[in-house]
Write a structure and sequence with these properties.
Blueprint (H helix, E strand, L loop, with lengths): L1 H33 L3 H4 L2 H12 L2 H7 L2 H4 L4 E3 L11 E2 L2 E2 L1 E3 L8 E10 L4 E8 L4 E10 L2 E11 L2
Parallel strand pairs: 1-4, 1-5
Antiparallel strand pairs: 2-3, 5-6, 6-7, 7-8
C-alpha cells in the first residue's frame, strides 16, 4: 500500500513539473518575441511614421510647447529603435538625434520595453529630464495606420 502512495506522489510531482516547464517555455517564447531587434521587423520609414505620430500627440506636445521659445528643435536620444539615420520632424523642424555622449537635460529619451512584431504593437516610455516628465503609451498598427494611445503622463517629482 505504501509503494502505491510513493508512486502516486512521484506521479503528481512529475505532472506538476511538466506543467511548470510548459509555462516556463511559453514565457520564454513571449519574452523572445517581445525583445526582437526592431531593425528586423520595422524599416526606417515605418519607424519614422511611428515616431512622428508619437511626437504629434497632444500629451507630448504639452511638454514641447514651452520649447518653442526656448530651444527648438527637439532632441531625442538614439537607441536600438531610434537610429541616427532616421528623419523625424515635429513642429515644422527636423529632430536632432543625439547619442548618450552628446545628450543634454533637454534630450527626450524613448524606450520600447515591449515590441511585438507579429501583432505590430510597441509599448513605449518617454523621459524628458528637463521637465521631469514621463509619458507611457502604445503604438498599434490598425489597417496600416499607426494609432498612438497614451496610457499615462505627468511630472515626476
Amino acid at each position: 500500500m505504501e509503494n502505491k502512495k510513493i508512486i502516486l506522489v512521484i506521479f503528481i510531482l512529475l505532472f506538476a513539473l511538466s506543467c511548470k516547464n510548459k509555462v516556463d517555455a511559453e514565457k520564454k517564447v513571449d519574452s523572445i518575441n517581445q525583445n526582437i531587434n526592431p531593425q528586423i521587423c520595422f524599416n526606417n520609414k515605418e519607424k519614422e511614421k511611428i515616431l512622428n505620430k508619437i511626437l504629434a500627440t497632444n500629451d507630448l506636445q504639452t511638454y514641447l510647447t514651452p520649447l518653442h521659445t526656448r530651444s527648438l528643435p527637439v532632441e531625442i536620444l538614439t537607441n536600438e529603435f531610434i537610429t541616427s539615420d532616421l528623419e523625424i520632424r515635429t513642429n515644422g523642424q527636423t529632430v536632432i538625434l543625439r547619442d548618450t555622449i552628446n545628450k543634454s537635460d533637454r534630450t527626450f529619451k524613448f524606450s520600447f520595453p515591449k515590441i511585438n512584431c507579429e501583432k505590430q504593437i510597441l509599448e513605449f516610455t518617454i523621459w524628458y529630464e528637463f521637465e521631469h516628465a514621463d509619458i507611457v503609451g502604445k503604438a498599434i498598427n490598425l489597417n496600416n495606420e499607426w494609432v498612438i494611445e497614451i496610457t499615462g503622463h505627468g511630472i515626476v517629482d
